[in-house]
Amino acid sequence: MNGSPALALQVGAIGWRSVRRTLRQPATIIPAIAFPIIMLFVTSAGLRASESLPGFPSVSYFDFALVITFMQGAIFATAGAGTDLAADIESGFLDRLALTPMSGAGLVIGQLGGAVVFGVLQATFYLAAGLIGGATIAAGVGGVLVIYAMVIVMAIGFGAIGIAAALRTGSGEAVQGLFPIMFTLLFLSTVNLPLDLIPVDWFRWIATVNPISFLIDAIRSLIITGWEPSVLLVGFAVALGIMVLGVALAAVALRGRLLRT
Amino acid sequence: MPAIEVHALTRAFKKGPRAVDGIDLTVDEGEIYGFLGPNGAGKSTTVLMLTTLLPPTSGTALVAGFDVVKDGARVRGAIGAALQEAALDRFLTGWEHVRLQGALHGMSRSDIERRGGELLDRVGMREAASRKVGGYSGGMKRRLDLALALLHRPRVLFLDEPTTGLDPQSRAALWNEVARLSRDEGVTVFLTTQYLEEADALAGRVGIIDHGTIVAEGTPTALKAEIGRASVEIEPHEAARLADLERTLAQFGTAIAAPATGAAIRLDAGVADVAPIVRALDAEGIRIHQLRLREPTLDDVFLEKTGRTLQGSGDSAAEGDEA
User: Fold this and answer.
1) Residue B270 has what pLDDT?
2) What is the mean pLDDT of chain A?
3) How is B217-268 classified by DSSP, letter by letter?
4) CB-based contacts of B87: which residues, under 8 Å, 6+ apart?
5) Which of B14, B40, B267, B274 sits at a 20 to 30 Å CA gap from A256?
6) Is residue A124 part of a domain?
7) Is residue A1 part of a domain?
8) Whole-angstrom Cα distance, residue A125 to residue B44?
9) Residues of chain B numbered 66-95 and touching chain A (CB < 8 Å)
10) What is the distance in angstroms between the Cα of A65 and the nearest Cα belonging to chain B?
């Protein structure tokens, strides 16, 4: 009989498996990387006229829209982490893991580790696409590092929500059901226009209170403005809040799913 | 000390009856215990409780000397399990499964490589282990599953319907390995199955479960001896004489289930009755198309205890949502 391995080893083993599994599914990776980049180019081409609106920041719409990619990446993180875990539940692989000394925390953190690695990979592609498309990062190299930090926190938060849904329902279809909800939330935010330029009252009100808007504004500020500590602070606070909420939901769902004694 | 000791173990679910209803059983170290029953009888629920994956509603169970409720982690350290439908990740290779499982069991890298290689050799999977599981056959998945279950040198091995869906060759290979584990390494094996021949071939003792309760337990030989009498099944050459055949056979024993084209009885005096039956049928002018003499089987034991045959008596009522 062997002892229970340290949490770090468990997380490493589960995370390694999660990354490897993801990288071996081109049908999952390619859309998650390509779709946000395609959306970036389509949206920025279609809404370029917004640049001439009074009150629109004095940057190209492409720079303004680059944040779309990171937010869509976060949505894919939600779906990806949750769908993989739901598949494990459906196939019985979770029972295999549960029969080892693996802790529940090891499972959740390991899965999230996989989501983080994939999130960073996605962000690298998005940044490269942005730079190739002519975008500049106003906050410089330091700003890029902060964008990565934000991406990591968002991958954990949104990934944890996906994991919570998977643990609660045990169904890949149910996890995929989060996708349209997240996309609706994304489009009911400041993703396409600054808050002041949203003409419809109800839309502006939703975008004002929508937590996604704060995340968008924080990342966008690094791209188009430079360093805006107050915007960044609020953005990180919201991201951390989503992370805490997601992890708490995942922990509660884990107790209901992992019934082992 | 018994390897498995169960008292009044019960598991109730919200929907449906109790999946496991107060069972008692004891399995000695190094023994192969066959847990036989139709689908939904409570076999898998029992395995889930004994492997700590599902808390019992009531009752106690000690596995490898540890309480499954109070000492789940130590139970998991002492057992290996291959549950239904070899649950493997089709995107990982066989070796990657071995390394993941070994790491989660806290084994050193060198031990994982040594023990993993030895087990993959033993189940004939060394060559295939560098390929992704998605391309494996059902038999290959089962063999890898068995190797994974044994990786951390468990004292008690749970196999939940390990040969379901396997071809005869794969099934025989798995039987050989399970028998060797018990014989050569002293591993206790708790084997659930709905295949009578599997329990008969492998198990030192058999427990028959139906609707959550154990209806019979003992060695296959003792259980069959309990039924005692052989049966005979005869098909007449002319279908029109079936009623006459049934009437004649009724003098020699109790009617039991038979194909529509024939009649069968449990022989009152055992095989000694066969010759008188043939003479009686000859005297009646009933020509025999086919005559089959059967020694008692575990299915007969099941029939005797439940009034139904094991084959085809499965239902899915018992195992449902948790309570």
Assistant:
1) 76
2) 90
3) EE-HHHHHHHH---EEEEEESSGGGHHHHHHHHTTTEEEE---TT-EEEEET
4) A91, A92, A93, A95, A96, B145
5) B40
6) yes
7) no
8) 47
9) 68-70, 72-73, 75-81, 83-85, 87-89, 91-92
10) 35
Q: Give mean pLDDT, residues B112-137.
A: 93
Helix (H) or strand (E) holding B207: strand B205-210
User: Within 13 A of A217's CA, how many CA atoms are on the CB side?
Assistant: 24
Interchain contact B52–A (C-beta under 8 A): yes
For chain A, the domain total comes to 1
Q: Sketch out chain B's domains with CATH numbers.
A: 4-219 (3.40.50.300), 229-295 (3.30.70.100)
Q: Is residue A2 a part of any domain in this protein?
A: no
pLDDT over threshold 90, residue B23? yes
pLDDT in tens, B254-311: 888 788 889 999 888 777 888 999 999 999 999 999 999 888 777 777 777 777 766 6
Read off the pTM: 0.81
Write down the ipTM of this complex: 0.85
One-letter amino acid identity for A174?
A
Cross-chain Cβ contact A102/B92 below 8 Å: no
How long, in residues, is chain B? 323
Summary mean pLDDT of chain B: 87
At residue B312, the pLDDT reads 55
pLDDT score recorded for residue B139: 86
Would you mind telling me the total number of residues written for chain A in this entry? 261
Asked whether the beta carbons of residue B53 and residue A9 sit closer than 8 angstroms, the reply is: no
Binning pLDDT at 50, 70 and 90, where does residue B323 land?
Answer: very low
Nearest to A153 by CA among A116, A108, A183: A116
Parent domain of A234: 7-257
Q: What is the DSSP secondary structure assignment for residue A228, as one 8-state letter?
A: -
SS3 call for B94: helix
- Which residues are CB-neighbours of A131 under 8 A, at least 6 positions away? none
B103 shares contact with chain A (CB less than 8 Å): yes
Q: Which residue of B has its CA nearest to A26?
A: B91
Q: Which pLDDT belongs to residue B314?
A: 46
CA B109 to chain A, closest CA, distance in angstroms equals 12
Please tell me which residue of chain B has the smallest CA distance to A101. Answer: B105
| Measured CA distances, B103 to A16, B72, B82 (Å) | 11, 19, 18
B14 has pLDDT over 90: no
